[in-house]
Specification:
By secondary structure, this protein is of the alpha+beta class. Strands 1, 2, 7, 8 and 9 form a five-stranded antiparallel beta sheet that branches. A four-stranded antiparallel beta sheet has the order 4-5-3-6, covered by helices on one side. The longest helix has about 55 residues. Helix 3 packs antiparallel against helix 8.
């Protein structure tokens, strides 16, 4: 069985003059994990890492210039030169100046436009307001009310005051009354929510002249703003490539400096310790030696030679090495937990089991073809589905398995008519000559009430899914036994619930039950002895584990406590193995449910007379099944992997290998 990638710990002593080139190489390599836990977002970065500030200001400039950000490096990783540092400062300073000018012009236009709008409210006044205000027999009020209250205010004022609108709506008004009637007018205005407009002291001349002057100022302000916006557009077009290049360079330098600031160092030397896959260790050492011209001090350690690992303070990081197909299933492993270092890599098993289980539960050649095409398009980067592209190969696998199951069940987009020629061809190979019989699906899941054999076939199919579960459970047990021996846990490997004694109990009971059910075996005394002995050793597994591993006392909490624990363990062993096995009945149930949904779609199509209606039902029904049932089946497959397979050997999780690598720090705004 394939195991996790062998690792080595390297200790590097790097001179100050070489540290940037060494860290740049490690970041490009993307296969070196620092032994220390670095947090690149630490608050001290801004003080110690000026390149982070430069990168942030370049990002602000990019956002202001409306240039689309990158989501990955588009050029070779490199650090900025001194010339590029000057270019960066000049670029973001110019962008900030343009931004400030645009904001200032916008505020100026807003202020002048507001004045123009306010002044236009007085377009009905044909004499200077200063003359009207100086009249000794009139009291004037100019202000705002809610537009809907104008008519009621005019009615309440009656002949006690004159009310007129200013501008084109009824929200700005001029109210005039005699000096004696001003108190009544003010009272009614207050009820209407009147807010007085303060006119500027230099409000002179007739409104027409004022409006003309303000309109000219508005147009000038607009022109100034448009000029700045045009400058921004031109600046963005001419500096786009430079800006994106500088963003990538300063993204690298900010990450490099963030790591460098946290390394152990003196005034002259930096100390780096980290993990690397064993197969790449020699190459890295040679490259670093060439890079530093022999000035670097390098020591290599096996995991068993690292004190922190020996004392249990550190776990060796785990890397799983696969081709692109198997690697696409890797996240299913790490989403549950990382395997321990030196144990069996379960990814190939997960890839096979996930594909097979999904295909059994979602058998339709047409719908599987949809998954296959989606997977191909995502793998070729021809389709973007919000980050689902990395699952393209998984879609290909489940699409192929669904198509194979669909060929067996005779379903193509919920119809059994399309694949009848294929059914007849396969049956002809088996010597079936009857036309009707040969047209039937190879695997008929839907039971027929008039045909008792169809019910038998259905239960046989459920038996097949339980057998698949038996294989999956068995693989999990074997992986656990191998892992425990690899970790030198001999007691657990021999006497654990998923150790050798537990496996013997499980396998013997299953084989005994199957042979007895088919009349191939009669219960005998030796059956009871084998089952009883294996169950006994498993129930008292903790005691025997301590005995084998040399731990004392054997009965850690006394004999009575061990007996009680053994009784509870017997119940746990029987119930867990029973549930682990029966749980796979759901695979057959979901396969049957999928066939029922296909039958429902076919029935609905038959009840719709128009061809267009039939097509609508076909498309809508299959779309619902593909999306909703596809999600449900995927969840069930993941659940079966986690609870029935992983639970056998994931007794302790390890530490995922997360190497240092430069990643473009996209900061979309």
């Amino acid at each position: 069985m394939a195991k996790t990638t062998p690792m080595r710990l390297l200790e590097l002593m790097i001179l100050k003059d070489d540290i940037d080139s060494v860290l740049t190489y490690l970041g490009k390599l993307g296969d070196f994990q620092f032994q220390q836990d670095f947090d690149s977002a630490a608050g001290e970065d801004k003080k110690l890492n000026p390149d982070t500030d430069i990168f942030a200001r370049l990002q602000s400039a990019r956002s202001y210039l409306n240039i689309e950000d990158l989501d990955h490096f588009t050029e070779a990783v490199s650090l900025p030169s001194q010339e590029e540092r000057g270019q960066a400062v000049k670029l973001y300073t110019t962008a900030e100046d343009l931004h400030n000018r645009e904001v200032e012009c916008g505020e100026n236009l807003k202020r002048i436009a507001a004045s123009y709008k306010e002044a236009s409210s007085f377009s009905n006044l044909k004499v200077p307001y200063s003359q009207l205000e100086s009249l000794s027999f009139l009291t004037l009020r100019i202000g705002r009310i809610e537009e809907g209250l104008y008519d009621s205010l005019a009615s309440s004022l009656g002949s006690n005051a004159i009310l007129t609108t200013l501008g084109n709506d009824k929200s700005k008004i001029l109210a005039a009354s005699s000096k004696k009637g001003r108190f009544f007018m003010d009272s009614e205005l207050k009820k209407a929510g009147f807010v007085e407009i303060k006119l500027p002291k230099d409000f002179k001349g007739v409104p027409d002249e004022l409006l003309k002057a303000l309109e000219g100022e508005v147009n000038a302000a607009k022109a100034e703003l448009e000029e700045v916006q045009l400058q921004r557009k031109n600046f963005a077009e001419t500096h786009k490539d430079m800006l994106l290049h500088l963003l990538q360079s300063f993204s690298v330098s900010s990450q490099l400096n963030s790591v460098k600031n946290k390394l152990e160092s003196t005034d002259f030397v930096y100390r780096i310790t980290g993990w690397i896959p064993a197969w790449e260790s020699r190459s890295l050492i040679r490259t670093l030696d060439d890079l530093t011209k022999g000035r670097a001090g390098i020591r290599e350690f096996l995991p068993g030679e690292v004190r922190s690992v020996i004392e249990g303070r550190e776990k060796v990081p785990v890397q799983l090495k696969h081709g692109s197909l198997i690697k696409s299933f890797q996240r299913l492993i790490f989403s549950y937990g990382s395997p321990l270092y030196g144990t069996v890599d379960p990814t190939p098993f997960v890839a096979v089991f996930f594909t097979v289980l999904f295909g059994i539960m979602f058998g339709d050649a047409g719908q599987g073809l949809v998954f296959l095409l989606l997977g191909i398009l995502m793998t070729l980067n021809k389709m973007k589905l919000a980050g689902w592209e990395k699952f393209g190969r998984i879609f290909i696998c489940i699409g192929i398995s669904s198509m194979i199951m669909g060929l067996l069940t005779g379903e193509f987009f919920a119809s059994e008519e399309v694949l009848k020629p294929f059914n007849r061809f396969v049956h002809s190979l088996a010597g079936v000559t009857d036309y009707e019989e040969a047209s039937e699906p190879i695997l008929k899941l839907m039971p027929n009430g008039t045909d008792s054999s169809s019910v038998v076939r259905m239960f046989m199919f459920f038996g097949f899914t339980i057998a698949v579960g038996f294989v999956i459970n068995t693989c999990g047990i074997i992986i656990n036994i191998v892992n425990q021996f690899a970790l030198n846990h001999k007691g657990r490997a021999l006497f654990g619930k998923t150790g050798i004694t537990g496996a013997i109990f499980f396998w013997y009971v299953i084989i005994f039950a199957v042979l007895t059910a088919f009349g191939l075996h009669k219960p005998a005394l030796y059956d009871v002895i084998i089952i009883g002995v294996s169950l006994f050793f498993t129930a008292f597994g903790e005691v025997f584990e301590r005995l084998v591993d040399g731990e004392r006392p054997v009965f850690e909490n006394g004999l009575f406590s061990a007996v009680i624990s053994a009784v509870v363990e017997v119940i746990e062993i029987i119930s867990s193995y029973l549930s682990n096995t029966v749980s796979f009945v759901r695979v057959g149930a979901f396969a049957l449910a999928h066939a029922v949904l296909g039958s429902i779609i076919s029935t609905m199509m038959a009840q719709v007379p128009a061809a267009a209606g039939k097509m609508a039902v076909l498309v809508a029904g299959n779309a619902i099944v593909i999306v909703l049932e596809g999600m449900i089946v995927a969840i069930q497959v993941v659940r079966l992997q986690y609870y029935e397979f992983f639970s056998k050997f994931f007794t302790e999780t390890g530490r995922e290998f997360k190497p240092f690598a430069f990643v473009y720090n996209c900061q979309r705004q």
